[in-house]
């Protein structure tokens, strides 16, 4: 469900995409799945021979005939599954994890995910002061 278009490699980096799906289990309970898919650089081990622009096979390939690895991009997905239907909040959470991962920030992903799971959602209709206190405790 997280790759409806298939797991295809790409020669170009594609922009991240976000979507949600709803899965229903055997007890008819709904599970909301938020998916953030991005493309990460991989090395194609088969590589490609470097040749001159005119394509003449008789000329010596650059760099002594070595096979140069071709760069390809592979899809990777971050998925958040919940019984709650809050796609924009989940998009923000996955976007935060993605940013920390891609930018190689000096912050452990385990701590980030743990903070997300221990966050207390304010009760609907609660005071704004209660919400601010809970947010301050995370920082």
Describe this structure in words.
The chain has helices spanning 87-102, 109-118, 128-138, and strands at residues 17-24, 30-49, 67-82. The protein is globular, with a radius of gyration of 22 Å. It has 139 residues and is α+β, with helices and mostly antiparallel strands. Mean pLDDT is 76; it is low at 49-61 and 130-139. It has three helices and three strands. Helices cover 27% and strands 32% of the residues. The chain has a three-stranded antiparallel sheet. It starts with 16 loop residues before the first strand and ends with a helix. This is SET-binding factor 2.
Label this structure with key terms.
139 residues; 3 helices; guanine-nucleotide releasing factor; disordered C terminus; DENN_Domain_GEFs; cDENN_dom; SET-binding factor 2; globular; Tripartite_DENN
Q: What's the pLDDT, averaged over the residues?
A: 76
Q: In total, how many beta strands?
A: 3
Share of helix, binned: 25-40%
Summing up helix and strand content along with how strands pair, one would put the structural category as: alpha+beta
| CA-atom Rg in angstroms | 22 Å
Describe the global form: globular
Describe the oligomeric state of these chains in a short phrase.
Answer: single chain
Q: Note the main sheet.
A: 3 strands, antiparallel
For the terminal residues, how far apart are their CA atoms?
34 Å
So how many helices? 3
How much of the sequence lies in strands comes to 25-35%
Unreliably modeled segments: 49-61, 130-139
Order the strands across the largest sheet as they lie in space.
Answer: 1-2-3
SSE ordering: EEEHHH
Pfam family, one: uDENN
Protein name: SET-binding factor 2
Organism: Ataeniobius toweri
Domain UDENN: 1-139
């Amino acid at each position: 469900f997280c790759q409806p278009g298939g797991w295809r490699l790409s020669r170009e980096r594609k922009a991240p995409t976000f979507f949600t799906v709803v899965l229903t289990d055997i007890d008819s309970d709904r599970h909301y799945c938020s998916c953030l898919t991005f493309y990460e650089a991989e090395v194609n081990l088969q590589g490609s021979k470097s040749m001159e622009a005119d394509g003449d096979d008789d000329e010596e390939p650059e760099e002594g005939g070595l096979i140069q690895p071709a760069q390809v991009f592979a899809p990777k997905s971050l998925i958040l599954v919940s019984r709650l239907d809050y796609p924009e909040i989940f998009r923000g959470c996955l976007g935060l994890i993605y940013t920390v991962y891609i930018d190689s920030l000096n912050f452990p992903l385990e701590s980030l995910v743990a903070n997300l799971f221990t966050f207390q959602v304010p009760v609907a209709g609660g005071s704004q002061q209660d919400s601010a206190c809970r947010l301050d405790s995370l920082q």
